[in-house]
Amino acid sequence: MVTTNPFSSMFGRSPFKALHTHIIKTDDCAKHLLTFFDACEQGDWDQAASIRQTISKLEREADELKTQLRLNLPNSLFLPVSRSDLLELIHVQDSIANVTKDIAGIMLGRRMQIPETLVPAMRIYLKTAVESVCQARRALGELEDLVESGFGRNMSVLVEKLINELHELEKQSDEQQVEIRQTLFSLEASLPPVDVVFLYKIIDWVGDVSDQAEKVGTRLQILMAR
Fold first, then answer.
1. Structural domain of 112
2. Number of domains in the chain
3. DSSP letter assigned to residue 149
4. Do the Cβ atoms of 162 and 169 come closer than 8 Å?
5. Spatial separation of the C-alpha atoms in residues 205 and 180, rounded to whole Å
6. Maximum alpha-carbon separation in the chain
């Protein structure tokens, strides 16, 4: 029987192609945070608004992919993985795009600029978060090959290496977050209290990007273990 749903053709022998397509969209969404932060730092709010629109568009596209994957995911698969694990994985991936959109939305809405003292550390912190998402994308990209190889040892070692590197990135993010929060604490008296509240929120949300990316790695480990 020939299907008329183009999305279903993405599954092939497994849903991992669709999952990989989704995380590519999520990764693209996160990468735009770098140029968005630069535009905010420069006070170029027109450029920031344009980038925010791009982020929102990518987030909507990722959300549509998530919905289509859920609708097309069979109740049973000829794979050594469970449907519930796959659904949890797509949920975690999608949360990355959601947080990215939230960061851009609140910063643009309030025309937030990071205090000059915090800018260098914040840029490194943000790059770590974006790299975490990219690393999750790499790990998932190898997973389909792992499934097709019958979970062969060499491929399994490669995926584990990528996931371990992802855990290290998340650890770096945690350490960077602590340092940034400490610096912000020392600046609180010189900043408007409301600005301080939202700065802490942005710092936490950037950390959430790394956290969710690491959770992708954790879900992949669960899939491999089963």
1. 15-225
2. 1
3. T
4. no
5. 13
6. 68
